[in-house]
Design a protein that fits this description.
The protein is mostly helical and 297 residues long. The protein has helices at 3-22, 25-32, 35-57, 61-74, 82-97, 120-153, 163-177, 189-197, 204-220, 222-228, 233-249, 258-273, 276-291. Helix 3 (35-57) crosses helix 6 (120-153), helix 3 packs antiparallel against helix 13 (276-291) and helix 8 (189-197) packs across helix 11 (233-249).
């Protein structure tokens, strides 16, 4: 899609989730869902992320294996910045053996984003091709599952992360970034699990990441993006692999029995084969059928 259509999609999805959060609809929806729905989505998403990580590791198997072993060793120390160390070491090795693009000249300066104002036609186009497919994915992965994972990883956090706040911040984030050329964005359960697994326990980690991206974008422009491309795929694969495992384990499969266990496994299988939105669409009526005792296992 052209940039203006992407901006239009960001405005629409931003308004959608902002309204969903402010009205409390997303909270009522989350409360109505059985725990097995979120668990099935967590397991499916985790397995999908881990599988993607393995495929990326296969692009440079030896480097991926070495870096994964390094990450595994560093994860013994909870506060160790595992991901940052892995990325920096991976970039250094990639440059030494020539498997990643060389560093390009840095274009230091002030690179401000351009304002993008879509027409009604571009808004409709963006809604059709980006908003409608994205809403069920964001609702499941970015809001419902992210809130569930957050409560599991940070059970003593007060006030706890909730679906309403995730929907509101998703809406505001898109409304603010879309006119500046930002792509559609949302929270993510895999990202949260990754932060936790690799030592990020407070708000400092995402604040530092955000600050780094702002500096790269505004201070270095396209050359800042070129710097990110020097990270080997196999290193990214290792990060995804462990993030996926962490997310899958957070589903706590051992706590589910009978029909709930069947539902979790069914949704996970559909999530891996298709996507979380399809798993949600199938799992919801199956959960209702179990509740009404139309189905039994």
């Amino acid at each position: 899609m052209e940039p203006a259509a992407i901006a239009g999609a960001g405005l629409v999805i931003g308004a959608f989730f902002l309204i969903l959060g402010l009205t409390g609809v997303v909270s009522r929806l989350a409360r109505a869902l059985p725990a097995s729905i979120a668990a099935g989505l967590q397991l499916g998403l985790g397995l999908s992320l881990a599988a993607l990580g393995i495929r990326l590791i296969e692009t440079q198997v030896w480097l991926g294996a070495v870096m994964s072993a390094l990450m595994l060793a560093l994860m013994r120390y909870q506060r160790s910045p595992v991901a940052l160390i892995a990325v920096l070491v991976g970039i250094g090795v990639g440059q030494m053996i020539g498997i990643t693009p060389p560093f390009s000249p840095l274009d230091l300066g002030l690179h401000l984003p351009h304002i993008v104002l879509p027409t009604w036609t571009q808004i409709v186009h963006g809604t059709e091709f980006a908003v409608l497919p994205q809403i069920p994915l964001a609702l499941t992965n970015a809001i419902i599952v992210t809130a569930a994972v957050s409560r599991q990883l940070f059970p003593r956090e007060l006030p706890p992360v909730n679906e309403r706040n995730l929907a509101i911040t998703t809406g505001l984030g898109n409304l603010l970034s879309a006119p500046l050329g930002g792509y559609l964005m949302c929270h993510g359960a895999g990202g949260l699990a990754g932060h936790f697994r690799f030592g990020g326990r407070t708000a400092t980690a995402p604040v530092l990441i955000g600050f780094t991206f702002v500096v790269l974008g505004i201070g270095f422009g396209e050359s800042g993006y070129a710097m990110l491309k020097t990270i080997p795929d196999s290193v990214l694969g290792g990060l995804l692999l462990f993030s996926g495992i962490e997310l899958a384990l957070s589903s706590k499969l051992h706590e589910h029995q009978g029909g709930d266990l069947f539902l979790v496994l069914l949704m996970a299988a559909i999530g891996v084969a298709l996507n979380p939105a399809a798993a949600f669409a199938v799992g919801l009526p199956v959960a209702y059928a179990f509740k009404r005792e139309w189905l039994r296992v």
